[in-house]
Amino acid sequence: MIQILLLAVGLAMDAFAVAVTLGLGLRKADWRGAMIVGAYFGLFQAGMPLIGYFAGTLFADYITAFDTWLVFALLVFLGGKMLLGAHKTDEENKDAASLVPRVMIPFALATSIDALAVGISFAFWQINLFVAVVFIGVVTFALSTAGVKIGAHFGERYKTKATIAGGLILVGIGVWVLVEGLFL
């Protein structure tokens, strides 16, 4: 159980970082909005190991061949959008800081690709898949919800600077994922 909990926390860290960034940009980050972000990230983070588990080694070579590039592209794109939107008015920028599926799904997908690879490894471990998936989903939900609230706290005080910082963080995470995937 301790290993599964530590794995869940490790998988949730990128979702937490992105949730903080989302909280920076949200005009009103109430608990409902924070839990929506948590639900997207938690469901994707829990669903990907299931997909990975059932795909097993059948698609492992195909997935690992491009997962680093996919995560990199998504995070740099989303971070770039935040940077470009930092100086726009609230009305011009309302889509970038909304919780609609077309905004949230790319974020949730980008933060859960690593969970897909973990799911592939689950196929070779003697592990209770249900317990692992529930832990991963619940931990990610909790940390992402908290991340939105933390980001919103700082975003209210430093809106433009916080949005720029959030965009740079997303781009930085994307670059780090690429460097890590290619060289480490």
Give structural attributes:
6 helices, 184 residues, 82% helix, single chain, mainly alpha
Describe this structure in words.
The model has no long low-confidence stretch (mean pLDDT 81). 43% of the residues are buried. The chain has 6 helices and no strands. It has 184 residues and is an all-alpha fold. α1 (2-25) packs antiparallel against α4 (101-122), α1 (2-25) runs parallel beside α5 (129-157) and α1 (2-25) packs across α6. The longest helix has 29 residues, at 129-157.
Question: How would you summarize this macromolecular structure in one to three sentences?
Answer:
By secondary structure, this protein is mainly alpha-helical. Helices cover 82% and strands 0% of the residues. Helix 2 (31-55) runs antiparallel to helix 5 and helix 3 (60-85) packs antiparallel against helix 4 (101-122).
Gyration radius, in Å: 16 Å
Helices and strands, in N-to-C order? HHHHHH
Please describe the biggest sheet, giving its number of strands, its sense, and whether it closes into a barrel. none
Share of residues in helices: over 70%
> How much of the sequence is in beta strands?
under 5%
Mean pLDDT over all positions: 81
What kind of assembly state do the chains in view correspond to? single chain
* Net shape: globular
**N- and C-termini, Cα separation:** 28 Å
* Number of H- or I-type helical stretches: 6
What is the structural class? mainly alpha
Number of strands: 0
The low-confidence runs, each spanning 5 or more residues with pLDDT under 50, are none
